[in-house]
Amino acid sequence: MSKEMIAMLLAGGQGSRLGVLTSDMAKPAVAFGGKYRIIDFPLSNCINSGIDTVGVLTQYQPLALNSHIGIGTPWDLDRNNGGVTVLPPYERSDNSEWYTGTANAIFQNLNYMEGYDPEYVLILGGDHIYKMDYEAMLDFHKQNQSDATLAVFPVPWEEASRFGVVIADDNKKIQEFEEKPENPRSNLASMGIYIFTWKVLKEALIALKDQSNCDFGKHIIPYLHKQGKRIFAYEFNGYWKDVGTLGSYWESNMELIDLIPEFNLYEEFWKIYTKQDRIEPQFIGANASVSRAIIGAGDSIEGEVSGSVLGAGVVVEEGAVVKDSIIMMNTTIHKGAYIEKAVIAEDCEIGADTRIGVGESAESKLNASVYAFDLAVVGQGTVIPDGVTIGKNTAIRGVTVIEDYPDKQLESGGYIIKAGDGA
């Protein structure tokens, strides 16, 4: 049975700029906003836009992602015809073919797409936070009899050189592309969201199948452009956040707790769906203090929480203080701990009277471009002993013991990576 449009969601990214948060999981599986994972946003956009067939292409550390998606029930994507399908790279008998580029990943799944004989194919990334009606973009694609339509987002001019930008005429027909231009002539940044007419996409994928690291932005779109195909820019003006760095990830979580959040998770008409494992209520103790915070299901708060986003099953014991931080699912903050401007991943144990995110700032000795923004970052399953002090721009991962901290300290810019190498 043919489908008018199917979606292919690229969720294989390692997300190396998120440091230890993605040591054990793909970036789209990282928690967001207390109860969600990043991939919930494009998946919810699909179901809210009437798209019921989604192929999710996984590659790097797909376990958390696969168990989160399951058979797609939370997004109403558990269907006999269509629904959500997780598509890992094929194991070939001669050699194991990893996906090498975004377009190569789609090419490897031509048979999956053929099975639905779609008229149009929507290509999505799995690592942005936004709400978008893909149906409106499809209408635009049809009206312009377009072969390929790129979603574009107007960025501040001073930031345009960080993006691939498009130059379009008054009808939004694309004339030129510039990849991270020094002196941009346009501020319309490509969002990495494409609608292709299926026949055009299929021909291009086959023509470029031997291109190494074949990518949509670098190869497929320029190839179609050279062929004289009709390529249009669909301008999107809603909330769109790339959560690719620790700084933007922390900021976009913090924006959720503003009095009038710029991005509203609670709109009735455009719900964000997720897999919710825990249904028990929160408990807030008599002496607890909670202000401007998202508190997850099953949390137990006896201490003080302000300006923070907590996932489900988090415990904050008596006398513990959590400020301006993100604490993910099933993490325990023991008595008297003080945590400020930290991102603490799932299943961590933070010892009593430990201080995290304090002191003077210093550049990271591990990776200054990743561990910046004065954040202290703690990877999944980490244990931190009682009574240690941890500075800013720090990274910790693994089961640490008091001997790992000279003078009971990890100075700003320092790191302790115990499990594997996952920096």
Number of beta strands: 31
Number of helices: 8
Structural class: alpha/beta
Assess the beta-strand content as a share of residues: 25-35%
Which overall shape is indicated by the principal axes computed on the Cα atoms?
elongated
Can you describe this structure?
This protein is α/β, with parallel strands linked by helices and 423 residues long. Helix content is 16%, strand content 28%. The protein is elongated, with a radius of gyration of 23 Å. The termini are far apart. 46% of the residues are buried.
Structure, briefly:
It is built from 8 helices and 31 strands. With 423 residues, it is an alpha/beta fold. The termini are far apart.
Keywords, please?
single chain, 423 residues, alpha/beta, 12-stranded parallel sheet, 7-stranded mixed sheet, 31 strands, 16% helix
How are the secondary structure elements laid out?
Blueprint: E1 5-10, E2 31-32, E3 36-37, H1 40-48, E4 53-57, H2 63-69, E5 83-87, H3 102-107, H4 110-114, E6 120-125, E7 128-130, H5 134-143, E8 148-154, E9 164-168, E10 174-179, E11 188-197, H6 198-207, H7 216-226, E12 231-235, E13 240-242, H8 246-255, E14 283-284, E15 289-294, E16 300-301, E17 304-310, E18 315-316, E19 321-323, E20 326-327, E21 332-333, E22 338-340, E23 342-344, E24 349-350, E25 355-356, E26 376-378, E27 383-384, E28 389-390, E29 394-397, E30 409-410, E31 415-417
Parallel strand pairs: 1-4, 1-6, 4-5, 8-12, 14-16, 15-17, 16-18, 17-19, 17-20, 18-21, 19-22, 20-23, 21-24, 22-25, 23-26, 24-27, 25-28, 26-29, 28-30, 29-31
Antiparallel strand pairs: 2-3, 6-11, 7-13, 8-11, 9-10
